[in-house]
Amino acid sequence: MTTTRTVTVGVDGSDSALDAVRWAAEEVRLRGGRLRLVHAESPLFDAPDLERRVRTALREASWRVVREAAEVVDPLVELEVHVEVGGPAQVLAAESAHAGLLVLGTRGLGGFASLAVGSTAIAVTSHAACPVVVVRGDKPNRPGPVVVGVHGDPHSVPVLAKAFAEASARGVGVVAVHTWHPVVGDVVALSAGIDLAEYDALHGGRLARLVSPWRTKYRDVPVELVVDRGSASTVLLERAEDAALVVVGGRGRNSLTGLLLGSTSHALLHHAPCPVMVVHAPSEDA
Ligand SMILES: Nc1ncnc2c1ncn2[C@@H]1O[C@H](COP(=O)(O)OP(=O)(O)OP(=O)(O)O)[C@@H](O)[C@H]1O
Ligand SMILES: [Mg+2]
């Protein structure tokens, strides 16, 4: 049985999925719980006219994928493996209902070589019921702070909760980033007698208030607050250069677009140099 203490990884035989396994095994080592490796086997397996030996070969290939993934896990980590027939996005989204965290590689065995992130990773990140980590970058477990994007709305609460819990487990700091868009540029603001720095200070105050309960809860975690003007993706990508992990919400305030993933999470999933955690607000899942 799976529980919220379970960290589930999708494995498909790719190197990228093995990086995801390495990241997830370290997560379990640091935070406890159990690691679950899941492979979604092609639904062709269910076709009634397939020869028995083709079915057997497919099943053997599936178990080879999970066995090879299990080999990169420290034997002290509690581990279970599972093969499920179905499309990878459907199987993994269903897994997310019983997992505390779902971990994926950026790419798999399919797709165009030039794609930065595959369709399974995007679909699962959009639809998962639990937080998802897409393991980007050359080194899955690299040092550095946890960078978190704070929109400044109530959706920031579960995002900050995850960021601080990860930072505390890793013994690193949190860099909390909030950006805002001035409706006028510097020159117009100056001629209208508007001091944009005053607005920076207002946003800074709001960010400090949002972070304050987490500072109190995690006194061991050093915090840096960053307020900047412009695009959240640009600033988060800059800050992610030295980060161990970047944590963002699934959607920002532009949820009326109907998209399940906002532009910030999209940009990070495509370009971040480190693993990206996407945390959907509970109300978004409802
Ligand atoms: N069949 C599968 N079973 C389990 N996990 C999978 C499966 N396919 C993909 N994944 C997970 O999703 C991650 C990203 O793979 P994805 O399928 O998105 O990329 P791709 O194969 O390069 O592109 P695409 O499938 O869009 O052609 C993998 O690293 C792995 O963690
Ligand atoms: Mg694929």
Automatic annotation (TrEMBL):
This is Universal stress protein. CDD domains: USP-like. Pfam families: Usp (PF00582). It comes from Saccharothrix mutabilis subsp. mutabilis. Signal peptide: none annotated. InterPro entries: Rossmann-like_a/b/a_fold (IPR014729), Universal_stress_UspA (IPR006015), UspA (IPR006016). Residues 5-136, 145-280 form the UspA domain. Belongs to the universal stress protein A family. SUPFAM superfamilies: Adenine nucleotide alpha hydrolases-like.
